[in-house]
Amino acid sequence: MSLESASSGARLLPSGTPMRPFVSLRTKFVIFFSLILVLACSTLSWFFVTARRDVMVDNLHRLGTILLTNIAHNDHFRFAGLLAEDQTTLHRYIEGLASIDEVVYVIVTGSDGRILAQYSKGARRSATDSERSSTDPLYPDVGISRRVARAPATVPQITPLVVSDRLTLEPREPDDSWFFPFPTLSETLYDFALPVLRKSVTPLNLFPALAPDDPLAGLGGMDRPAVYGIVQIGLTDAFVLASVLTMIQKVSLLTALIIGAGILGAHLLTLRITTPLRSLAGVARQVAEGTEPVQLPYSTNDEVGQLTGLFNVMTRSIQERNEAITESLHTIRIQVSQLTTLHQASAAIASTLNMNELLDSVLQLLVGNLGFVRMVLVLRHEDRDVSYVARVTGIAPDIAEMATRVEIPIQEDGSVTADLFLHREPVLIQHLDEAVDRIHPPVLELLRRIGVSSFIAVPLQSHHHTLGYLAGDRGAQACTDADLHILLTIASHVAAAIDNARAYAHLSEMTQHLEERIRERTEELSRANNQLQEHDRRRSTFLSVVSHELRTPMTAIRSFAENMLDGVTGPLTSQQTTYLTRIEHNVARLARIINQLIDWSRLDTQKDILRPEPVCIAGVAVTAGESLQTLAADKQVTLTIDACESLPKIHGDRDKLEQILWNLIGNAIKFTPPGGTVTVSFALDPAGMVRTCVADTGCGIDAQHLPHVFNEFSKVPSSMPTSQGAQLGLCITKTLVAMHQGDIWVESAPGRGTCVCFTLPIAPIPRNDGQSHSGDRTEC
Predict the structure, then answer these.
(1) How many CB atoms are closer than 10 A to CB 89?
(2) Do residues 748 and 668 make contact, with C-beta atoms less than 8 angstroms apart?
(3) Any residues with CB less than 8 A from the CB of 566 and at least 6 apart, and which?
(4) H-helix or E-strand spanning residue 70
(5) What is the value of pTM for the model shown?
(6) Range list of H helices, 566-653
């Protein structure tokens, strides 16, 4: 099987994605090696041909230089030919030069610029120009000789020329095509021009007859060497081109042979590598298709041979691994079946807490899914050291009824029961006859009657207690360790379920008992609540009757005392006046206490409701202060209410606010000695509330008693005990402030006075749409 055929059939990846077009490794390697070989050989051939051509051109230049230098330095040619203008001599030298194959023309120019002698072999016939005659003379432009005359030198001046379409010689343009393998393949004529100079610098005017504007005029001056004439020789590179073409043909043939041999060698080399790879691909396909692969023979001793050996080892390993995977899959299927049974048993266990339903479901699942023929569940008696058969399945009903009446003692006697209950060890009995002395006789008799030959039993443990054991058998088939392991796994769940079912049963009993206790306790609390409600009703009635019955005689007592003090009954002695004043003071105090009791009773029964509206707290404070101004004047206490501009109105009940301020200002006056001051101040709290403070210069309160000043009937010590009442005023005040969603606190120290502050929310401004916004406010 070839590598191409092995791969042509698999055009899709495993995910379904189409593969790229297949190109064999051999093709890639041959193409790559061929490109490298062609490039290398072509580069070397180009370098060789170019180098050889340059050498031949240099030889041509050297030939022209030698020929021209020899003639220019020949004294006979200089004097006899040029100075004497002897045509025979000149023609003899020209014919000698023309005998050289590379020489195309020879021109001898005199000192006056006249051509003394010239010779041309004519234009060469070429394949591309059949009309050109070989007798057509070719001479260069006279401008070359003029340039040489203007700047005479001792070395020849070389000018490359080409034959134009007009059969004239023109200067050749330089060839800058670097990418072309050869600079040019057309014929080039090289013009070698050299002036013939005199050896001395004696000032002689050798050209008197020249015109002033002639290029050669003035060459005989003192400052420049005298020029006898100019000799020009034209050499062609036709022979060089012919040699180059011949060389190109030979080099091309040799290069082609080398490239062909290289490609053939690359093909053979890649064939030696890819042939084993094709075999590897074929075996890999067999492995992929799941068929048993064949072992590949060793064809080479190189890396490919090592790869073949390793591939054989890999295929054997894969085959062995596939066999192991097959066995593992079989084991996994069995384990999946067991896990499915375990899951179903767990679901059945979790679905009910009824003991009977639980045991029936578990045994049916084990018999139906794990292949057990008979299953039995034995539990330990809760009060005695005996066990009994709780559930049994897979046997006849009459034998099952007999089994439920059997009790098995739990004692250390080396029996199967002792191993399960006392040692908590599972038991595997593969042959019943080998363990007859370890089985309780009634149980052994039942086992023989139902045909048990091999069985397993696992203890049911929960919280380090053995609840019982679970046992089963497979009929004629002997039980194995695998059966024991799966039953051990299920046993822990069954034990937990039995423990939970028992706990649930106990909890149900406890719940029933607790419900009875709760019902009895609820009845007791109901009776107590009725008694409390009756007691509260009687208290309210008592307070109402007492307040009504006490106000009438107190009013009469207060009226009589005031009349007697006013002198209605006649003059009074000082002692009588004192007694009557005390009577009046205590009657007023008793009236305040009764009013506080009535207010406290009303608040305690939550019968008071607020009627909130925008209220100016400063105005309410002025009203309350005016009603208490007489009391302050009698005690010689200065009452001051600070004025506060731009104070926002609060949201509250005017009557309740007046009661709050009346209580606080009245308390401050009562506990302030004569000569003291009481100050009411207002401020805007940073939290967006209006803060009102009532400060006095009274006796003050100790820090340890401050947390109790707002408690009802609190007994806070004071240096002025005669001013204390029923201790309900601050309690009522705090309740009223809390009803307004405000806060109240006390700051005090003994001998430094007391300051009671409370905060109330700002009243919002109603909008045109009837709603209000807490960010708006009205000012007093």
Answers:
(1) 17
(2) no
(3) none
(4) helix 25-72
(5) 0.38
(6) 574-604, 617-627, 629-634
> For the residues of 8-30, what is the DSSP string, one character each?
HT--B-TTSPBPPPP--HHHHHH
Q: Which helix (H) or strand (E) holds 532?
A: helix 481-565
Report H helices in 352-370. Answer: 355-369
**Residue 589 reports pLDDT greater than 90:** no
Contact 258, 41 (CB under 8 A): yes
Q: What is the pLDDT of residue 180?
A: 45
497 in Cβ contact with 362 (< 8 Å): yes
Instruction: Answer for the pair 102, 236: CB distance below 8 angstroms, yes or no.
Output: yes
Residues composing the chain: 780
| pLDDT tens column, 636-647 | 999 999 887 778
Q: Which amino acid is at 457?
A: A
CA separation for the pair 259, 256 (Å, rounded):
5
* d(C-alpha 365, C-alpha 342), whole Å: 9
* Site of tokens 């009481």: 678
What's the CA gap between 29 and 39, in Å, rounded? 15
Q: What per-residue confidence (pLDDT) applies to 679?
A: 94
All residues at 6 or more sequence positions from 542 whose CB lies less than 8 Å from its CB, including other chains: none
Helices (H) and strands (E) in the chain, counts: 17, 21
Is the pLDDT reported for residue 607 higher than 70?
no
Residues 374-419 have pLDDT tens digits of 888 888 887 788 898 888 888 888 888 888 888 888 888 888 888 8
pLDDT of amino acid 212: 45
Q: What is the dihedral of CA 623, 628, 629, 635, to 10 degrees?
A: -160
Per-residue pLDDT band at 604 (split at 50, 70, 90): low
Which residues neighbour 392 within 8 Å (Cβ) at sequence distance 6 or greater? 363, 374, 375, 376, 377, 400, 403, 404
Alpha carbons 452 and 601: distance in angstroms, whole number: 87
φ, ψ of residue 606 to 5 degrees: the values are: 55, 45
As to burial, measured by CB atoms within 10 angstroms (0-12 exposed, 13-18 middle, 19+ buried), residue 93 is buried
Query: 3-class SS at 566?
Result: coil
Single-letter residue type at 171: P
